[in-house]
Automatic annotation (TrEMBL):
GO molecular function: acetyl-CoA C-acyltransferase activity
InterPro entries referenced in this protein's UniProt entry, alphabetically: Thiolase, Thiolase-like, Thiolase_C_2, Thiolase_N
Thiolase C-terminal domain sequence ranges: 252-387
Annotated protein name in UniProt: Acetyl-CoA acetyltransferase
Length: 389
């Protein structure tokens, strides 16, 4: 079976953007990604679009919109996928399946979301659809409330880890200062993140504003190609392995503090890549809320259940630590336009592996882990990436 490589990418800034809609956001990155890869529209065999939408816009059928700004793509098969906050990775993995099946040689992957045009109350309701509404629709605080409940359960079982969450937030905001694409390029410091105040109130206790990712607009794109095609191009980032594991949707039917699906995805990824965590140079992980990053430390195997706090206290995840986590600033600093996030995380990893990450750069980075999840750790995607050329 042929293997697929990432051969080009593009990324808009994340934040409250002037772009009026998803169509315009996708237009900004589609052509740029193709140019970066050194391929033309005539070389593209398939287009895969990740947009959650679900009420952010009345306009659907986003797959067909890529060709509106690039008419040469008008007759290329195009498909839109959605998998909550894992939508971007779902689009990428679908494109990889397309290439590795031999059905095509080059695919364009675009992830985008326009979230800021809606009032916050509407946005919260739209995002709540990534939970199980039959049981969780009345949780105060919307999706932040879902993770607030997860944090409450975690604290009840393992002790109050509010300080550790503040350290995670401070770390990611500090890292994000160096990210030119980040929505919030500001080092807030631990004390600000740790204290409840008028500027940092509870959103869904025990989660404060600094524990929650941002509502964002943005887009990112990747070009993937088979190995033979990649050999002729300027850059190639290969997948040592990739894994997708789902978990059951309702929180009531699983241990919400365990992220069992994420743990299984990481276990399979390490086995498939033939590595341990010590072989990784950094990880980009899904810190939609700081409690998620804390539990992900345990799911990826950095700490035993309930002992993720040790990763924080020992500085393991710091940029100069044993395994830097989110040197890009993560979703906390970079922002979280849902459909774009999974694609963006892979772009951040590619920049590091190509030694093109500027002030974000992890020295001599050769092997990267990427973890993107949909919902409250329901759809779990783990990629292990390495530079091929």
């Amino acid at each position: 079976m042929t293997r697929a490589c990432i051969v080009g990418w593009a990324h808009t800034p994340f934040g409250k953007l002037d772009d009026p809609d998803v169509e315009s956001l996708m237009a900004r990155v589609s052509g740029e990604a193709l140019a970066h890869a050194g391929v033309g529209p005539e070389d593209v065999d398939g287009i895969y679009v990740g947009v959650m939408n679900n009420g952010f816009s009345k306009q659907g059928f986003e797959a067909a919109q890529v060709a509106l700004d690039h008419p040469a793509l008008a007759y290329v098969p195009a498909t839109r996928v959605e998998n909550a906050c894992g939508t971007g990775s779902a689009a990428l993995y679908t494109a990889l399946d397309f290439i590795e099946s031999g059905r095509g040689r080059v695919a364009l992957v675009v992830g985008a979301e326009k979230m800021t045009a809606k009032p916050v109350v509407e946005t919260s309701d739209i995002l709540l659809s990534a939970s199980y509404r039959k049981e969780e629709a009345d949780i105060d605080g919307g999706f932040a409330g879902v993770f607030g409940r997860i944090a409450q359960n975690y604290f009840q079982r393992y002790g109050d880890r509010s300080e550790e969450l503040a350290h995670i937030s401070a770390k990611n905001h500090r890292n994000g200062v160096a990210n030119p694409y980040a929505q919030m390029r500001r080092d807030f410091g631990f004390e600000f993140c740790n204290v409840v105040s008028d500027k940092n109130p509870y959103v869904a206790a025990p989660l404060r504003r600094t524990d929650c990712s941002l509502i964002s607009d943005g887009a990112a794109a990747l070009v993937v190609a088979d190995e033979e095609t990649a050999e002729r191009l300027q850059q190639a980032i290969a997948f040592r392995t990739r894994q997708h594991v789902n978990d059951i949707l309702p929180l009531s039917r699983r241990d919400p503090t365990a992220f069992a699906g994420a743990r299984m995805a990481w276990d399979k990824a390490r086995a498939g890549a033939g590595i341990t965590l010590d072989d990784l140079d950094f990880v980009e992980t899904h810190d939609c809320f700081t409690i998620a990053e804390l539990i992900e430390y345990e799911a990826m195997g950095l700490a035993a259940p309930g002992e993720g706090y040790r990763v924080v206290r020992e500085g393991i995840a710091q940029k100069d630590g044993r395994l830097p986590i989110n040197p890009s600033g993560g979703l906390k600093s970079k922002g979280h336009p849902v459909g774009a996030t999974g694609v963006s995380m892979h772009v951040m990893a590619c920049l590091q592996l190509m030694n093109q990450a500027g002030d974000m750069q992890i020295p001599d980075a050769k092997l990267a882990g990427v973890f993107n999840m949909g919902g409250a750790a329901v759809a779990n995607y783990v990629s292990i990436l390495e530079r091929r050329k």
